[in-house]
Q: What sequence folds into this?
């Protein structure tokens, strides 16, 4: 992407913004676009650094989007000391660790000055409920305004410092966040001409049961 | 009434230079020859609708070239494109503002059923959930020829309408509603999600 590696950018950003906790999120895959995970408290300062640094000059936010990560359980085997048959032994015991879910906002930054990019930064919320808050980057990147509204509309991330945080695609009375993975849309499957898979399952709930047969269908005409 | 005139006799008289017609035929001829559509489009189908009205396909040949920017002057609503749930109340409101007699063409897969966006959270599964539709055109989007075909089908439908009797046209029947309730924005969906007086999904018996 840029002339510098992501490690160099991370190092310089941490020097420029004291106290900033930045992590490199690898993206193993064909795209291979690793990103910088920035903590919420210093996000604005780091973004300002990325924008104003003379060698980076990532002055254009082309895209901002959200990601929903559900609560998940990670299975691990932990060595535990246990007394087995009167002897203390190390025993492998499977444990389940609950990792709380969170919402992410991802920003793709480019440089109009140096014609390089993307530099990708992301922020994570504390959880998926009341703690779904992030600092707004609209004061730094004006083009993020509508896209942050879209993230708010579809994922339910509240952006502190956003000048006009309202729903942008759905109507104001709408309560749900449709792009969340646990969103369940209203049940309007009463007529599906060619249902399959999940749609078939939901359409089946609207099917009328077959009429009970009373034996009359077996009567045949007696020809003389 | 035209039903009382023998068709053979009528064409024989016509050949002799005598034109016999009826009030009903005259009335229907006048209406079907100047169907003014409401000028609005919702998505890509609207581009095909514009092409239909332009010179190559020329909707004017059928008397429908005067697209009105006001529902008060329109006879026909061409629902051309995806009806999002946010747009649906406005469509119903426009339909209510049109004077009788009024007709609706549901153009393209989206306006019929939601089309490729059918299982989406924001797209209405067909405008016939809220207003009665006269002609459906399949296609994504339908070609201008298909819209012309629908237009001719509508003209055929108007031609067959009766002025009197039990089977008279809907707009001549005072008991028939000409306005339909506008859905409101609910917390999870439009309320109501469909008008049961208009929308009757086919009952499917499957196990």
A:
């Amino acid at each position: 992407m840029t002339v510098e590696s992501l490690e160099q950018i991370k190092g310089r950003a941490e020097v420029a913004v004291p106290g900033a906790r930045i992590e490199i999120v690898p993206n193993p895959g064909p795209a291979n676009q690793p990103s910088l995970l920035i903590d919420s408290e210093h996000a604005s300062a780091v973004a300002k650094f990325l924008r104003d640094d003379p060698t980076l000059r990532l002055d254009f936010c082309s895209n901002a989007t959200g990601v929903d990560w559900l609560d998940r359980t990670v299975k691990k085997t932990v060595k535990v000391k246990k007394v087995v048959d009167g002897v203390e032994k190390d025993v492998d015991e499977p444990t389940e660790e609950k990792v709380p879910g969170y919402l992410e906002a991802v920003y793709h930054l480019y440089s109009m000055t140096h014609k390089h990019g993307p530099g990708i930064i992301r922020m994570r919320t504390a959880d998926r409920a009341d703690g779904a808050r992030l600092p707004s980057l609209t004061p730094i990147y004006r083009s993020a305004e509508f896209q942050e509204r879209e993230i708010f509309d579809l994922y339910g991330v509240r952006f502190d410092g956003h000048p006009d945080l309202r729903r942008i695609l759905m109507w104001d009375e709408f309560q749900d966040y449709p792009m969340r993975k646990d969103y369940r849309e209203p049940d309007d499957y009463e007529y599906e001409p060619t249902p399959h898979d999940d749609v078939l399952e939901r359409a089946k709930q609207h099917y009328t049961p077959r009429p009970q047969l009373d034996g009359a269908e077996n009567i045949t005409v007696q020809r003389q | 009434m035209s039903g009382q005139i023998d068709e053979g006799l009528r064409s024989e008289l016509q050949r002799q230079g005598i034109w016999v017609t009826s009030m009903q035929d005259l009335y229907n001829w006048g209406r079907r020859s100047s169907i003014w559509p409401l000028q609005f489009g919702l998505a890509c189908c609207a581009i095909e609708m514009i092409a239909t009205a332009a010179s190559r396909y020329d909707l004017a040949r059928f008397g429908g070239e005067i697209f009105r920017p006001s529902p008060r002057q329109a006879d026909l609503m061409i629902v051309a494109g995806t009806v999002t749930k946010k747009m649906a109340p406005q469509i119903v409101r426009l339909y209510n503002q049109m004077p009788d007699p009024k007709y609706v063409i549901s153009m393209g897969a989206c306006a019929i059923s939601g089309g490729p966006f059918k299982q989406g959270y924001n797209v209405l599964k067909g405008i016939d959930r809220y207003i009665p539709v006269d002609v459906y055109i399949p296609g994504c989007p339908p070609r201008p020829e298909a819209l012309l075909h629908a237009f001719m089908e509508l003209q055929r439908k108007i031609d067959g309408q009766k002025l009197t009797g039990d089977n008279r046209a809907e707009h001549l029947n005072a008991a028939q509603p000409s306005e339909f309730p506008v859905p409101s924005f609910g917390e999870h969906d439009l309320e109501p999600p469909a008008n049961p007086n208009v929308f009757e999904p086919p009952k499917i018996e499957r196990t």
